[in-house]
Design goal:
The complex is a heterodimer of chains A (about 120) and B (about 575).
Chain A: E1 6-10, H1 14-26, E2 30-34, H2 37-46, E3 51-55, H3 63-73, E4 79-83, E5 99-102, H4 108-117
Parallel strand pairs in A: 1-2, 1-3, 3-4, 4-5
Helix pairs in contact in A: 2-3
Chain B: H1 3-14, H2 20-34, E1 38-45, E2 51-56, H3 61-67, H4 76-84, E3 88-91, H5 107-111, E4 116-123, E5 128-136, H6 144-187, H7 193-207, E6 210-218, E7 226-232, H8 236-252, E8 259-260, E9 264-273, E10 276-286, H9 292-369, H10 375-401, E11 409-411, H11 413-425, E12 433-439, E13 446-448, H12 450-467, E14 472-483, E15 486-494, H13 523-533, E16 537-543, E17 547-555
Parallel strand pairs in B: 12-14
Antiparallel strand pairs in B: 1-2, 1-5, 3-4, 4-5, 6-7, 6-10, 8-9, 9-10, 11-13, 14-15, 15-17, 16-17
The chains are: A alpha/beta (about 120), B alpha+beta (about 575).
The complex binds adenosine-5'-triphosphate and magnesium ion.
């Protein structure tokens, strides 16, 4: 197995970012954080991530728009859309993401899906 | 005969203020009394250009025989006197046979009672009102003086007939105006159509002294449903007769001659709006034979009613539309309320969800770090249980507030495609694109989300349109096929756009892959994911230089399988 996998977490809530970061670091991932869509796009341009965890509901540039941008920069970079509920599929563009999880205090599902996409 | 005395009596009566008809009869009596053995009577000229024997004082056999006959203007001696407005005097020898009414053989017996006959026109410069007839049984002819008296009496009688006609005319006009004004009041009363028609029937019955009134009205133009309003009573056979008349009036438009029974007459008149018969008003009135006045009155009322009803019907239709609009609006408001309620719930739940995830998430991390036997560990577990309980409640609320992703129903694919093709063809840009659809027999309905499937076919159609440069032919086929154990419904869409370049063939389902200047490259990738989430698949057959065929497969007999509300069934195409 080559070095640690890099994951970018995009969420406008600081405490959610912190929670996901610690949970994923415990799983042995390298984690970067972005607090909005613009910052996320900048980071995706600057660094080769293995996966992006993207919140849908964010002020300004929302997750769906950010997703479109990310895919036009790196169309093979897997993205997991994240939201408080299944608003996914409302916007057909969200179909373009690789996975989708409903946010929960229990992060098991998120971790499983990340591992599946990264084939770990 | 004392001429001066006769004349002065005639003038006295003529200018008295008793009833006009009584004055006329009184004058006839004076004539009879002063000319021994004689009879006087008056034929009145009516609108139908016939003479009616209206005035006579005695039930004399000749007068009775004459009163049964209504000669035309110009017919027989009375008719020709009325026409020429010239007096004619005869004795029994010079008198034309049967007064010129050759068919009235019954006159032969009774004419011979008299020997002198005078016929005097009752006319002024403008027209003739009738004919005064004086018959006498004496041998000597009327003297010059008597003739002069006849002439003067005729003048008086002419004046009286004229007055009587005016009187009758204005009487009729007054009845007519009263009826119309009453109907007018009803029409503008703003009441509903049924009570307006009921009131109108009552007024018509009163005005025409009718026993039975029917108003038949078409519910809507062009339709054969009617609203019937009746007043009074009629026997069934009479009603049948009226129905037949109504039928004919509606079919032929226009009036009919009245039908008379032994003691009743039916009057019927069409109600016409914008040259179309919208109904019929029929009246059953006592009295045999036709009464011109009643008929004329009904005609006037019908015309008035036609105009008024037109507005009322329009208003009623408008009211219906308004009511419909109102309830549609009400429904819309309800829907909006529900929708905004849903949105509000979603927003609140969303706001609660994030802090809950943070509380629960960190509590979990804490629990992991604490040693198992520590008492605080139990407290943390309580917190975690409560958090997951709250999360479940929120998920339920949110699932209710938001639609689950796949809204499956059983769909007739042929109809869905017809609808979509119709939608596309309504765009003039598609005028040069021919779309042919063939559907195999016995295609069962298929379980799918119709909106999402429309999106799939829409993307494929638009790609074909773009590949063909807005001109060509698209063939759509719907058929059944099998693969292993599963039956599939397949929709194939072939175009004449020259096909797909083999160099890019493997990329067309990738998101953001496009060869078009203004394409996003999402069309096929989204379509593919939709079809995959239906447990179906998309295949492409490519004929270089000819065109591309996209085959969309959907599994049949899947109606009971439910999709998970979140998460994805589809895997990215490898
Ligand atoms: N019927 C077809 N004939 C020829 N080429 C096709 C056909 N359908 C798709 N393609 C090719 O596949 C590419 C991808 O199609 P897709 O529908 O995903 O995106 P798009 O049509 O380019 O853009 P979008 O649909 O988002 O506006 C097209 O750009 C085109 O080159
Ligand atoms: Mg397209």
């Amino acid at each position: 197995m080559r070095g640690k996998k890099n994951i970018l977490i995009v969420d406008d809530e600081e405490n959610i970012r912190l929670l996901y970061k610690e949970e994923l670091q415990d799983e042995g991932f390298e984690v970067d954080l972005a607090e909005n869509g613009y910052e996320a796009i900048e980071k995706v341009r600057a660094k080769d991530y293995d996966l992006v965890v993207l919140d849908i509901k964010m002020p300004g540039m929302d997750g769906i728009k950010t997703l479109t941008e990310i895919k036009s920069i790196k169309k093979d970079l897997p993205v997991i859309l994240c939201s408080a509920y299944s608003e996914y599929k409302q916007d057909l563009t969200s179909w373009v993401s690789e996975e989708y999880v409903v946010k929960s205090a229990d992060t098991t599902e998120l971790k499983q899906k990340i591992k599946a996409l990264l084939k770990i | 005969m004392d001429l001066i005395q006769v004349l002065s009596k005639v003038i006295d009566i003529s200018h008295s203020n008793i009833d006009i008809n009584a004055r006329i009869n009184g004058i006839l009596k004076i004539l009879e009394r002063n000319l021994e053995n004689s009879t006087a009577a008056i034929y009145v000229l009516e609108k139908d250009r016939r003479l009616t024997l209206k005035y006579s004082t005695r039930r004399d056999p000749l007068i009775l025989a004459l009163s049964e006959f209504r000669p035309l203007l110009g017919e027989g001696v009375p008719g020709s006197v009325a026409q020429k407005r010239e007096a004619q005097l005869f004795d029994i020898r010079s008198l034309p046979k049967r007064f010129g009414f050759l068919l009235l053989t019954q006159l032969d017996k009774v004419i011979s009672d008299y020997s002198q006959f005078a016929f005097l026109p009752l006319s002024d410069e403008s027209r003739c009102y009738g004919v005064l007839m004086i018959f006498s049984s004496r041998g000597t002819p009327f003297s010059e003086g008597e003739k002069r008296v006849f002439e003067l009496v005729s003048k008086e009688l002419t004046g009286l007939l004229k007055a009587s006609e005016l009187y009758r005319e204005s009487g009729r006009r007054i009845t007519e105006l009263m009826a119309l004004s009453e109907i007018g009041k009803v029409l503008i009363s703003g009441r509903d159509l049924n009570s307006i028609l009921r009131e109108t029937a009552l007024i018509v019955a009163k005005t025409l002294e009718a026993d039975y009134v029917r108003i038949l009205l078409k519910e809507k133009n062009g339709e054969r449903s009617f609203r019937l309003t009746t007043y009074g009573h009629a026997d069934d056979n009479v009603k049948e007769e009226i129905e037949a008349i109504e039928e004919r009036l509606i079919r032929e438009k226009g009036s009919l001659p009245n039908t008379s029974f032994d003691t009743y007459s039916i009057y019927a008149y069409p109600l016409v709006s914008k040259n179309v018969v919208i109904g019929v008003i029929s009246v059953l009135a006592r009295g045999e034979g036709k009464d011109d006045e009643k008929y004329h009155l009904l005609e006037t009322i019908s015309n008035y009613l036609s105009n008024g009803l037109e507005n009322i019907i329009l208003r009623a239709q408008l009211n219906d539309i308004l009511a419909e609009l109102n309830s549609a609006n009400q429904r819309l408001i309800e829907q909006e309320k529900l929708k905004s309620l849903g949105e509000m719930t979603a927003n609140i739940a969303h706001e609660i969800k994030n802090p809950l995830v943070v509380i629960g998430g960190f509590a979990k991390r804490l629990a992991k770090k604490l040693p198992l036997e520590q008492k605080e560990r139990r407290y943390l577990n309580i917190i975690l249980n409560e958090v997951s309980r709250l999360e479940n409640i929120l998920n339920e609320v949110l699932a209710y507030a938001k639609d689950v992703p796949l809204k499956r129903t059983l769909i007739n694919m042929d109809e869905l495609l017809s609808e979509l093709i119709h939608f596309l063809k309504s765009d003039p840009h598609w005028d040069k694109v021919e779309i042919v659809k063939e559907c195999e027999d016995g295609i069962p309905p298929v379980s799918c989300d119709p909106e999402q499937m429309k999106q799939v076919f829409f993307n494929i159609f638009v790609n074909a349109f773009e590949a063909m440069g807005a001109e060509g032919k698209i063939v759509v086929k719907i058929f059944k096929t099998e693969e292993g154990q599963t039956g599939y419904l397949c929709v194939s869409i072939s175009d004449t756009g020259g096909g797909i370049d083999p160099l890019i063939f493997d990329n067309i389902f990738n998101p953001f892959f496009t060869t078009k200047e203004r394409g996003t490259g999402l069309g096929l990738s989204i379509s593919n994911k939709i079809v995959l989430s239906h447990r179906g698949k998309i295949e492409v057959e490519n004929k270089r230089g000819v065109g591309a065929t996209f085959l969309v497969y959907l599994p049949l007999n899947q109606n009971s399988t439910s999709e998970a509300g979140n998460g994805k069934m589809a895997q990215k195409k490898g």
